[in-house]
Structure formats: structure tokens, C-alpha cells
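Budget justification, computational time. The allocation requested in the original proposal was used primarily to generate C-alpha cells for proteins on the priority list. As evidence of use, we reproduce two of the resulting records. The first is shown immediately below.
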Amino acid sequence: MIGSRTGSKNGRRADTHAQGRYLPPGYDAIAKPRAPRSGGGEGRTPSQRRIFLSLALFAACFTLVGARLVGLAIMGGDGESNVAIASAATQIHRPDIVDRNGEVMATDIATASLFADARYVIDPAETARQLASVLPDLDVQDVTQKLETGRAFIWLKRDLTPKQQYAVHYLGMPGLDFRNEQKRVYPNGKTGSNVLGMVDIDNRGIAGIERYMDDTFARKDDTGRPKFDRNRTLMLSIDLHVQHALRDELEKSMAEFSALAAVGVIMDVHTGEVVAMTSLPDFDPNDPMASPDNSRFNRATLGVYEMGSVFKAVTLAAALDSGKVGINASFDATKPLQVARFKIHDYHAENRWLTVPEVFIHSSNIGTAKIALQLGSEEHRQYLARFGLLTRPEIELPEAGSPLLPARWGELSTITTSYGHGIAVTPLQVASAVSTIVNGGFKVEPTFLRHNEPRLGERVISAEASATMRGLLRLVVMEGTGRKADVPGYPVMGKTGTAEKPIKGGYSRNKLITSFISAFPANDPRYAMIVMFDEPKATKETYGYATAGWNAAPVTARVISRVAPLLGIKPATKPQENDVLRQAKLVSYETLSGQ
């Protein structure tokens, strides 16, 4: 019979299915208790409980299997999360880096990278062979092994060109896909590479200014990856045009003198801004691994060298400032200076008494040593510290070298350091010291970031001592060892330095570090520069000489003749030597210069 509608609020029998199906005959004759409205399993028959437990067990198993399937969908064969890998692989959008005039030095471009989901690769070996046919730099065996792992995310090749991406698309092979990424590009190639540094495959800065950006301007996300303000642009102190001219001249000169390496730094003497810096050999940051390892070594900021006679400028500036040595003092250079078992000689021996200007002009080791001794060992050391020559420079680049100092600062150390032996510093530190000497005596900290205002620090030497040193540095170029550094229209001041390289048990007479420090224009110095060569060779044109006056000095002249107009320095219309010497109270030396 048809089930009665009585006993149910919704017009249906309480134990009838919602579909209202017919009940078997005699069903109503059996008295059945009403199921309770609550209370879990109370009142259920054993068969109902078995059915309930079976359904619960089935649901639990279904949940576990489903969770495992989801896990397999996002996990590689070794348990590595595909989602995590993909997230970690998302590249970093870096700000542009521009020079002081807004010209781009580093920027990002969109690119694509190829990856595989090996679970969908049908034939790993065939897939590898097909990929190698359009991407010849892939190793078939290596790719095959990666695809055989069954992992859900495998990088195969990063930074594809559009042509390469199209070729892989055309293969139409399952399990391959692309990820849009950012690639760092450096439009000027090697120019400025030691300043810029480089990034890794994931666009993280690992050297130079790129590393500085990560450490200073980036905030970290949950995975530790740097995040940048996309609207930010980092402006450097570098002038690309000056940088190119400096690098070009050093590259040609390095080949001319068959040198192992060359360094050049140009610095604003009032702000410490590094306008140009080159360390050769260098590298192309677009493909840094294509260059030898030594090309990525920044000799200007990380390399430390015994710089030779350029240190005499620091020693003399300190002595004049202290008041212990006057400009009219004279020193006996008639014979070598005996110190314990060592003899100090002059390379350009005059074998006579020398005035202070003559000690400097003729680069007398004997005279400089006696000046340092008159200053005193401790005071000499303190001046070197105030010039920033005894500590690691605080600069933006992570590649900053610490100086090598004498273990004991006694009389012999004072003598040798006075003319640049027994102490090793970076070329950048020397350029900074030169800036202090010529800018009126104020310490300047080197920087690779653009600054619009002077950044003068504490006073190191007096304005009077600075003016005197400007005159003496000018005399070196007019009458001394730096004559080949002079440039018509752009009066140069400077000092040569030739140092024997240290070897086991002493110093090599044939392996030299040559350098020339300079500042220009001499009447109102705005820029300081250092040019340095590592083991330059003598040539026919240098008459067999390999000293600084024959290589670093003339290269300085070539560089200044090119960069001075770029820096907005107008050529002098008349000789300005008298002005420089008058400022230095060295007017009596006009006769020496023929003025």
C-alpha cells in the first residue's frame, strides 16, 4: 500500500526517503521507533551503525587520498614544493642605475626562462634531444637525467631570447613551459663594470653598487628576497663620458707598456665624488663568467699596493702643517742615509744639500726620510691616520681593502713609509688623500653616489700648508719628475711614484708599481686623479725606462686633455704658474720655472 502521510510535519512519513518511493508490502505493520533528533548514535540499530561507520571510514580515506593527490600536484619527486620553487624563482625587479647626467648604466628587461614539469614529459631522452637541437648549449645527458627525476619543477635554461622561445614553442613537446622574468642588462658593457658590479641569475646583487643596493635600499620579503621600490632610480657620481675616456686611455696604455694591470680614479676634491674609476683588466657584467677571474678583482678599491714616492706628498704636507719643518729648511742629501744595517739611496741622486722644494721636485728619499724623522714617528703616524690611510675606507662598494701596516712603528718604519714603502693602501685612498692636500686641507670621504653640495670633513692640514703643497706639486710638473704630465691650457700639479714590488726576502728591482697623482686645474683644483700601472715594461719610446715619469705621467696628460673639456673646465688663455706659486708663497721659484 501507499505510505500514509500521517506522523510527518512535511506531509511525508518520517522513515520514507525524500524521493517518496513506494514501501514494500507490510512495511506499515512493523512498529518502528522514531529516530532521535540529536544525541549522535543513540537509538541506531546495529546495521545503521555499521553503515554510518563505513561511510565515515570511506570519507576519511577519500580525504587522505585527495590530500595526497593535491600534494603530488604541487610536489616534485624529491618532495620539493613546486609552488615554493616557482615562488623562489620569481625574479627581482631592480631600480635603474644612472650616471650623474641621467644616462642609463643598468636596467631590467623582460625575458623568459624555460622549465619542465617532468611528470608530463613522455620521453625524457627524446625531449632532451629535441631541446638541444634548438638550444645547442644544453647538455643532452644532463637534461635527460633531470627529466627522469619526475620532479614538478626543473629549470632547463634561463634568459631565453625571443627567437629561442619561439623555437622551443614550435617543438610542441608536453611538460615544457616558460616563466616571465627580469634580466639585468648593462648597455655600456665593460665601461664602469667595477663600479656597477653584477647580479646573479635571480637578479640579486652580488658585487659592486648592485650589492650595495640590495643591502641598503631593499626590504626583504618572507623568503628573504630583496624587494625594491619600482619607482626609484639610483644616481651615481660617475660621468659615463669621463669614464669611457679614462678607460680608453688606460686600455691603450696598458697594451703599450705591456703592464699586468692598470688603475685610474678621478675624484671631485670638494665632494669626494668618484667621477670615473677603472680597474683593468675588467669584465662585461652582461656575461661576467666569460672573463678571467682576475678581471673581476677591483684593484682601485680592494687591491692594496706599496705606492712609492706619491706618499712623499703626504709626508711633506704633514711636516709643513706641524710647523716642525719650514719651506726654507735644507737637508743633507750628499750621501746615503744609514739606518741600522739598511742604506737609503736616492734614485735621482743630487749628492748635495737640498731645500724642501728641491727634496720634493727631485723626489729625494734621503731628504724625505729626514723630514719624517724631524716630524717624529708618532706624529707622522697620526697624520697618516687623519688622511685616512691607516684604516679601511667606508665606501658604498663592498670591495674595500684594508691597508697593510708596519707591525711596529719605529724609526725604520717611519723612514720607509715616508716615501711609500712598508705600507700598502688602495689607489682610492691615495686619491682621497690628494684631494685633502689640495682642497684647502679638509678630509673628504670618497663616494660613488651623486651629491650636489660639498662634503668637507674635518680639517687635516691648514689652508696655508695646502696652498704651499699646491705650489710644490705644480713645481714637480714644471721642473721635476712629472714634466710629461703637463697639458697645454690645463695646468697640472702632481707627483710621480715608482715602487719596487715586494717578493720573498725583499723587493724586486724589475717588477714595479708606477703611479702618478695629480690635480687640475692647478690654479683652482677641482679634480684629483691617480693613474697606476702594475709591472709596466720599458719601450723604445721610453728609452728603456719603466718608471712613473715615463708611463704614468704621460698617460695622465692624455687623460686630462680628454676629460677636462668634458668636465666643463675651460682652457687657460695665459700661463697661470705665477698665480699658483704666489698662493704657495713660492714666488722666488718663478726663476726656477723660467717664468
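The second record produced under the same allocation is shown here.
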Amino acid sequence: MLDRNSLVLENLACIASDDKGLRCLGSLEHKEENQLQCTKCNSCYSFVNGVPVLKEDSASELYEFYSKVYEKQSRSEAMCEGNPRMEQAKIFWELLPKFVSENNINGYSLEIGCGPGIFADRVPNFIGLDYALNALLAEGFESYYRVCASGDLLPFQSKTISLILSLNTLEHIPHLDSCIYEIDRILKPGGYLVWVRPLVDEGKEKC
């Protein structure tokens, strides 16, 4: 499983910080069958069914909520017509390939808050990032690059991502300023951020 993810693993970074709050950002290597280790500070992270788990807290209420949302949901179910997420994403889903083509994007494409990966085939070199491990382990999502992490502590080396996309997710991240800082850090020069958020109209959200 590591061999299939080796290219993404090369671009992953340690999320640990020192006493002064400075990020380690060391490279990660496969230490044991289900474990990754930082080559700089020796912090260890789990590797679950091909998914690196790189986040500080897996016991929070937010994690529990999103884990239940995606429990036992397959990728094909998420993409079915009539599924609320797919209905919200329809225009975004249709326009993404055109956007990629017009802007000649061919590097890594990271989706923050990817769920079970409905956009995985719409952009090149897709990496799905979600806080909920259940979403990343969804049936039908196994053959794609996936990382379990928080949007405000992105576990990637600086200037490695060509396109970052997010649908109705960034506005739910508790520390949005940290998220924007991290996005700016990992985007390649000339890279793109495509952020779609709901429009609120008289108490109703519209994408």
C-alpha cells in the first residue's frame, strides 16, 4: 500500500510543533507496517488501510460528528442523483475539468473536506483530505490518494500543491485564519484555490 502512495508520501510533512510553536515540517517515512515517523523530530503517526492519519485530536466532538455523517457511506452512494451533497456539487462537478484544462493544471490537486471523493476523477493527481477517517475509507474510494488531517494544519511540504479546492467546508473550520495561512504555504507559485461556499438567503443556504 505504501508503494502506491509513495509519491504523495514524499510531499507529506510532520504536523508537530516545538515549544515556541514552530512547525517541524519534517519528512515522513514508513517505519512499520501501520506507522509513519518524522525523520526530523521522530513523531509517529498511524497509517490506516492506506490512509496516513496526521491530526492532533481524534476524540473531539467535531471528529465524532463527521465520523457518524460518513459512517457506512460508499462513494457511489455519495455520487447518486438525489444525494444532497451531489446536488449541491453538480455545477462545481461539471465545471472543474474545464477550469483545469483552461489553466493547464497538471500537478497535485488537493480537496479539503473531500468526504467520500466525488471530485476525485475531475482533477489531475487528486489527493483527498478529510477530518473523518470514515469518509476516506468509503467503499469505492480506496484507489485514490487520501490523507486524514485537519484543514487548519495541512500535513504537506511547502509549495507542493497546484490546485486546492473546497466545497462548503472552509467556513466550518474553527481556525480559518490558520487554514488560509496553510493554504498559502503549500500552494505552488501560481497555484489556484477554488473555494465554493453557501450563499445564505433568508435562513436558507444555496450553493
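A brief technical remark on that second record: Confidence is low (pLDDT under 50) at residues 199-207.
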